[in-house]
Write a structure and sequence with these properties.
Oligomer: heterodimer
Number of helices of chain A: 0
Helix content of chain B: under 10%
Largest sheet of chain B: 6 strands, mixed
Order of helices and strands of chain B: EEEEEEEEEEE
Distance between the termini of chain B: 41 Å
Radius of gyration of chain B: 15 Å
Shape of chain A: globular
Helix content of chain A: under 10%
Structural class of chain B: mainly beta
Number of strands of chain B: 11
Shape of chain B: elongated
């Protein structure tokens, strides 16, 4: 089944403790992206990647890092999480950068205390 | 800065009612407008609109785009409780990364929370 998977689905952590949210797609898509969703703000793009080893900042990249060592995986790294990063995170993918994001992962609900 | 505004933010109706959700936008290098439905999980794609005046239809859902007035509407007729969800509007613009490669950048609206009561 074609899908985007994320792990973990739920995470409660404390300020400053490094964490990684994994994202994987099995559709050989080139274009992947991370979004965060907050009430009243819709989805905002954090980082995106056009292909392996090609990443760039989205609209709200502060406090996040990403890597794209393999085509299928696009992890989101919070080196020192803070409470304002409490949010619902979505990974998404698309066949290529010129095609819109149509495949979203199930979401990761992160709470930073 | 690209901007997408949805209205209303929240809507409560009874089964059988017809609803109209609105999305207005201001973006540079517009390419398309998309509607997504989000239940208690990831957004799922509904429609992509690129041309003015052409209605897209899927069952009881339909949508139309006006590129002159910069808005779109999503209509749902004969609503059912299963239509309860957040409806997201997003506008795709053509952007370029630092290396000059073009890609589709999505800007989302805040979403409309639709609740359909039996």
């Amino acid at each position: 089944e074609a899908q985007v998977t994320q792990n973990p689905r739920y995470l409660i952590t404390v300020t400053g403790k490094k964490l990684t949210v994994t994202c994987s797609q099995n559709m050989n898509h080139e274009y992947m992206s991370w979004y965060r969703q907050d009430p009243g703000l819709g989805l905002r793009q954090i980082y995106y990647s056009m292909n392996v080893e090609v990443t760039d900042k989205g609209d709200v990249p502060e406090g996040y890092k990403v890597s794209r060592k393999e085509k299928r995986n696009f992890p989101l790294i919070l080196e020192s999480p803070s409470p304002n990063q409490t949010s619902l995170y979505f990974c998404a993918s698309s066949p290529r950068p010129q095609r819109v994001m149509q495949f979203f992962g199930p979401g990761t609900r992160l709470t930073v205390l | 800065e690209d901007k997408v505004v949805q209205s209303p933010l929240s809507l409560v109706v009874h089964e059988g009612d017809t609803v109209t959700l609105n999305c207005s936008y201001e973006v540079t290098n517009f390419r398309s407008l998309l509607w997504y439905k989000q239940e208690k999980k990831a957004p799922t794609f509904l429609f992509m609109l690129t041309s003015s005046g052409i209605e897209k239809k899927s069952g009881r859902l339909s949508s139309i785009l006006d590129k002159k007035e910069l808005f779109s509407i999503l209509n749902i007729t004969a609503t059912q409780t299963g239509d309860s969800a957040i409806y997201l509007c997003a506008v795709e613009a053509v952007a370029q990364d630092a290396g000059g490669t073009s890609y589709g950048k999505l800007t989302f609206g805040q979403g409309t929370i639709l609740t359909v009561h039996p």
